[in-house]
Amino acid sequence: MTRSFTGDEFAAAIRRSFPGAVIQSERDAVVVQREAVRDICFYLRDNPELQFDFLSSVTATDYVDYFEVVYHLFSIAHNHSAVLKAWAEGRTNPWVPSVVAVWKGADLQEREMWDLLGVRCEGHPNLKRIMMWEGYPGHPLRKDFLEFDHRTFQAALQPTES
Amino acid sequence: MADAADMERRDVELSMPPLFQYYDPREDEALEGRNIMDLMRRSEEPYPDMGTGIYMEDGVPQNVAVAALDDVLTWARKSSMWPAMFGLACCAIEMITTGASRFDISRFGMEIFRASPRQADLMIVAGWVTWKMAPVVRRIYDQMAEPKWVVAMGVSAMSGGPFVDTYSVVPGVNLIVPVDVYIPGCPPRPEALLAGLMRLQDRVERQQRAGLSNQTR
Q1: Does B29 contact A134 at a Cβ distance shorter than 8 Å?
Q2: What digits encode the pLDDT tens for the residues B102-116?
């Protein structure tokens, strides 16, 4: 059975190397400062006791004032799991560091996060839309994206030359 | 924080080479986006439903000889309507079931789902179409040889259905291609699909009897 880190346990493990980075620890997750996310992820992957070698999911939640980016981490070697979170403030340009350099599997999920929620991943090698097409107005899974009016959008389109 | 050797190794990993040295797929992405929006711009009004004869091209009735040969052609056409093999959503599962032995679409001469649209007469749009998929559906329709017919299977293909207000789904496939028969249901059962296909066969027969050719747009 996979052992899940509690928030306090995981926060203690992070504080060992990053004393100031933990913002708060929840029941089974830890919120860290977004500037430190990439360093922390390298640490979590490379530390022999933690060895989180598998990033099972990257996603984000829209809390209107901020976006909460969630990383679900697994260690295949130790068979344990933990949840890391970071807050991206603002609605015009929320961002978190990209963790593609840590886990290659983050590539497509970070692109999906950018496409549907508009949370930019700084340092991503190929950050572009993945679900919607180029030129789509806005990010459809945001709370203030209420509906996509086909008629208005279609009427505003100009003929393209090509 | 991390020690110096760790940072140095990390620098090597972070300086990834450019992914696209010779070919930049972003140009293709931009072209795809332009194509989709071009189709959206041209898809403001739905096509009128087929089979009314209103949109028949001028001169077609005069050039069609109504004779016994027509009956033979009609019989051949309606008895060997080959669908194009593609399914977009869960309605495709019902379409596949229709093709299997329990419901046996081959009773109507339709069992040969063609993988090439050039050899298909009938397009069964099974399920919702997203705007990103719309140019592909239109291209399949354009590649099919005349005469050709289109069946919109399921409420999502008919009108967008439960997805009509979403951000990515075409509200009615008749914005993209002209439709002959609409089959409601979410998804329609195989019996409903077969009933719709029989209606289509009747329509083909009646069109030919009346000297009407299938229209194209």
Answers
A1: yes
A2: 998 988 888 889 899
B190-209 and B68-79 helices, crossing angle to 10°: 160
* Domain ranges, residue A124: 3-156
Rounded CA gap, B3 and A46, in Å? Answer: 13
**Is the CB of residue A98 less than 8 Å from the CB of residue A114?**
no
> Who among A43, A128, A133 is closest to B2 (CB)?
A43
pLDDT-derived band at B166 (thresholds 50, 70, 90) equals confident
- Per the structure block, which two tokens stand in for A139? 């990010």
* Domain assignments of chain B as residue spans, ordered by start: 20-51+79-217
Count of CB atoms within 10 A of residue A93's CB?
Answer: 10
Predicted complex ipTM: 0.76
Dist CA A20 CA A16 (whole Å): 10
CATH number of A131's domain = 3.30.460.80
Q: pLDDT by residue (tens digit) across A140-162?
A: 898 888 767 777 777 777 766 55
Q: Which CATH class is domain B20-51+79-217?
A: alpha beta
Give pLDDT, residue B53: 47
Using one digit for the tens of pLDDT, what is the confidence trace for B122-139? 999 999 999 999 999 999
**Residue B147 is encoded by which pair of tokens?**
């005469």
Q: Which residues pair with B84 in a beta bridge?
A: B114
Number of domains in chain A: 1
The answer to whether position A162 is within a domain reads no
Residues of A in contact with B37 (CB under 8 A): 133, 135, 157, 160
Instruction: Express each pLDDT in B25-53 by its tens digit.
Output: 778 888 889 889 888 888 888 887 765 44
Structure tokens at B123: 């397009």
Q: Is residue A76 part of a domain?
A: yes
Q: Is B199 exposed, middle or buried (0-12, 13-18, 19+ CB in 10 A)?
A: middle
Closest-CA residue of B relative to A17 is B1
* Nearest by CB: B44 against A135, A148, A155: A155
Query: Nearest-CA distance from A152 to chain B in Å?
Result: 10
Q: Are strands B149-153 and B122-126 parallel, antiparallel or unpaired?
A: parallel
Residue A161 domain flag: no
